[in-house]
Specification:
The protein has helices at about 10-15, 30-45, 60-70, 90-100, 115-120, 130-140, 160-175, 175-185, 190-195, 195-205, 210-215, 215-235, and strands at about 1-5, 20-25, 50, 55-60, 75-80, 85, 110-115, 145-150, 155. It has about 240 residues and is of the alpha/beta class. About 20% of the residues are buried.
Length: about 240
């Protein structure tokens, strides 16, 4: 567990359960990628790595399934873990519905991988605090095969707050140019991740997923409302302009 400038006693509470709690602080910059590298590259000792954020938890058995799948097929370098958005409010349900379309796509990111592969690609790009998971995903998949497991990861976005949600998206947009510069806007994955067709249509209809849109029309309308607002934020702020 790597903590930064936590003010909610995360470190003190975590130390009750494990001694493997480390502090990392990099003043003056957004340090999330450096923090992840510190934990995964410098402090980890295992053959396999699982990258989780502070607002995530996993099903019992996730690690076991990942290790089993990776050891049965030595050509696998990484695995996707289906992500569920937590929360009881209606907008949380909309976000949970939306996220189910992204599992295992270029909108997703590999979360379980071999340490050897992670070392080979150099870990997370510490110049990125937006799209750093997509960037790692692209580099890992250049090394070999990837797959997806059946058990799930839970992402606690807290009860949905539209203002905070859009503010977070605007913040991320300020770092997009570094991702674009690295891969180019003509890169096929980048075009899917940021292009109008795939982000608003393709990812929701491919592989028979369009049936879910028809089965849940109200959630579909809510999802497209949010996607539209996010698109406006991206087009009017940050490096996306």
């Amino acid at each position: 567990i790597v903590v930064d400038m936590s003010s909610d006693k995360t470190k003190e509470i975590a130390l009750k359960y494990t001694p493997n709690v480390f502090s990392y602080h990099q003043s003056g910059t957004e340090a999330r990628s450096a923090q992840k590298n510190y934990g995964l590259l410098q402090k980890s000792t295992g053959k396999f790595l699982l990258s989780l954020d502070a607002d995530m938890n996993i099903d019992n058995g996730v690690v076991k399934e990942c290790v089993s799948k990776m050891t049965q097929d030595m050509q696998l370098v990484g695995l996707y873990i289906p992500e569920i958005i937590s929360g009881d409010g209606w907008w949380s349900k909309v976000r949970r519905f939306e996220r189910t379309f992204y599992n295992g796509t270029v909108i997703d990111g590999l979360r379980f991988f071999t340490k050897e592969a992670f070392l080979k690609v150099g870990g997370f790009d510490e110049n990125l605090y937006a799209c750093e998971d997509w960037d790692l995903d692209k580099r890992l998949k250049q090394l070999g095969k990837f797959g997806i497991i059946s058990l799930q990861l839970y992402h606690n976005e807290a009860e949905f707050n539209l203002k905070k949600y859009l503010s977070k998206k605007a913040y991320y947009s300020n770092n997009f140019e570094k991702y674009f510069s690295k891969w180019g806007k003509s890169d096929l994955d980048v075009k899917k991740q940021f292009g109008l067709y795939y982000r608003y249509f393709g990812v929701f209809i491919e592989n028979g997923k369009w049936k879910k849109l028809l089965s849940h029309p109200i959630l579909t309308l809510g999802m497209y409302f949010l996607r539209g607002l996010v698109g406006i934020v991206y087009l009017t702020s940050g490096d996306y302009k």
